[in-house]
Amino acid sequence: MKTIQEVAEQLKLLADKTRLTMLALMKEREWCVCEFVDILEISQPGVSQHLRKLKAQGIVKEDKRGQWVYYSLNVEDKPYIQDVLKYMPDNKMILAALNKECVTSVCK
User: Fold this and answer.
1) Pairwise CA distance, residues 104 & 38, whole Å
2) Phi-psi region at 88: left, alpha or beta (left = phi > 0; alpha = psi -120 to 50)
3) Which of 9, 19, 63, 73 is most buried, with most CB under 10 Å away?
């Protein structure tokens, strides 16, 4: 059982638009840092900082493959985060809102 403080800290991370967008995108698949850089048009260190905070709270997990690191959701034990993400738009809608038709990354 999580304490109210632990849940509050995790939910605070979702109050940031960039982090919430990243998590919503991860509902459908894992993403590489370079893909987030392209989609969100922020620097690699900026993306990494957001992901570091999410990973520290156990909301995402990483999988290192060669020089690339892929991130995916880790919310099986966090139903309150699952419930928030249930109401987020799908990837197609998010990408359209960001004026991105598709992801063109160099990591694959």
Assistant:
1) 7
2) beta
3) 73
pTM above 0.85, yes or no: yes
- The residue among 93, 102, 80 whose CA lies nearest residue 24 is 93
Adjacent-strand bridge partners of 39: none
Write the DSSP symbol of residue 63. Answer: E
Residue 57: burial class (beta carbons within 10 Å; 0-12, 13-18, 19+): middle
Only one residue has tokens 């403080």, namely 5
pLDDT tens digits, residue range 44-75?
999 999 999 999 999 999 999 988 899 999 99
Which strand ranges, in their side-by-side order, compose the sheet holding 31-32?
A: 31-32, 68-73, 60-65
Q: Pairing between strand 31-32 and 60-65? A: unpaired
Residues with Cβ < 8 Å from 95, sequence gap 6 or more?
Answer: 39, 101, 102, 103
Contact (CB, 8 A) for 63 and 102: no
